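quick q for whoever's on today - can somebody do inverse folding on this one?? i tried earlier but teh output was garbage lol. tokens:
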């Protein structure tokens, strides 16, 4: 029977049992797709990653990312957490300040700076805008709790509907069940996540719901935080000198407080949007199949 070693790390936190947990299998070269999906369903975390040799020689490794239900093109906390494991295991030379991971969406640049791991957000694609009253009903909120900018669908590999709310209390009150998520979609439209946030002094206070992906609520959503930065800058929802650096606090209401750091380079991210954070190792284990 094959035995696979894996790690569990908490991403976007410096404290164990906070942040977003991730399982990483550092040597998955012998696994098939079905086994990867079954393992992700067994562990039942937001995502599980599997590391394989890169097919692109410019990349340090190939990473496949699975939720309990499906494989993802890209996801933020799996990218950051897997990068930590690769560095910690010596699969990327210790002290390396930058490298590239091969993911389904394409090459993802990684850099290490001041104890944090940063990814460069893939290109952001813009979708349609939504009626604020419809979004409020789906989230169990009053229409007056939605801020002025129209909610909009943005994607950096994973589509998210961004809904700006008036304050932290409204964010904590928001709730999205499966029926509510489906009420937001047009006929034939693919499922998407719903990201709610309130602007605060140092950035944003956030939550993300994805019931159609088998994730009731995600503690930290790195793939959504780059588009969040673009949305907030475009609608002047970021305070500070230029709004180019801020923090998104996410997962607090579910007891998994996470801090996602954002650096917007160039005018509205024209030179790139980087998302970074700390990683805390938690578990080393084996799985026998």
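ok took a stab at it. sequence:
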């Amino acid at each position: 029977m094959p035995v696979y070693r894996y790690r569990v790390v908490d991403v976007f936190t410096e404290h164990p049992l906070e942040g977003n947990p991730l399982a990483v299998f550092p040597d998955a070269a012998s696994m098939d797709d079905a086994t990867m999906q079954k393992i992700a369903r067994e562990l039942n975390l937001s995502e599980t990653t599997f590391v394989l040799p890169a097919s692109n020689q410019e990349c340090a490794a190939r990473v496949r990312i699975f939720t309990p239900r499906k494989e993802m093109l890209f996801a933020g906390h799996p990218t950051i957490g897997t990068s930590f494991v690769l560095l910690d295991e010596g699969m990327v030379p210790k002290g390396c300040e930058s490298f590239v991971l091969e993911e389904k969406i394409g090459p993802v640049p990684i850099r290490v700076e001041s104890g944090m791991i940063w990814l460069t957000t893939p290109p952001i694609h813009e979708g349609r805008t939504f009626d604020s009253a419809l979004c409020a009903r789906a989230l169990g909120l009053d229409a007056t709790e939605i801020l002025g900018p129209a909610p909009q669908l943005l994607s950096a590999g994973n589509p998210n509907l961004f809904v700006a709310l008036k304050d932290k209390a409204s964010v904590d009150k928001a709730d999205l069940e499966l029926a509510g998520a489906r009420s937001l979609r047009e006929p034939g439209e693919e499922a998407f996540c719903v990201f709610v946030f309130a602007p605060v002094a140092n950035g944003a206070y956030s939550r993300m719901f994805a019931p159609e992906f088998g994730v009731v609520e995600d503690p930290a959503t790195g793939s959504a935080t780059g588009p969040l930065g673009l949305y907030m800058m475009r609608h002047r929802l970021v305070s500070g000198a230029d709004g180019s650096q801020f923090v998104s606090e996410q997962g607090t209401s579910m007891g998994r407080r996470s801090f996602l750091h954002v650096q917007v380079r160039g005018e509205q991210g024209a030179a790139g949007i980087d998302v970074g954070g700390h990683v805390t190792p938690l578990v080393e284990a084996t799985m026998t199949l």
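fwiw The radius of gyration is 18 Å. also The CA atoms of residues 151 and 163 lie 5 Å apart. so keep that in mind when u check it
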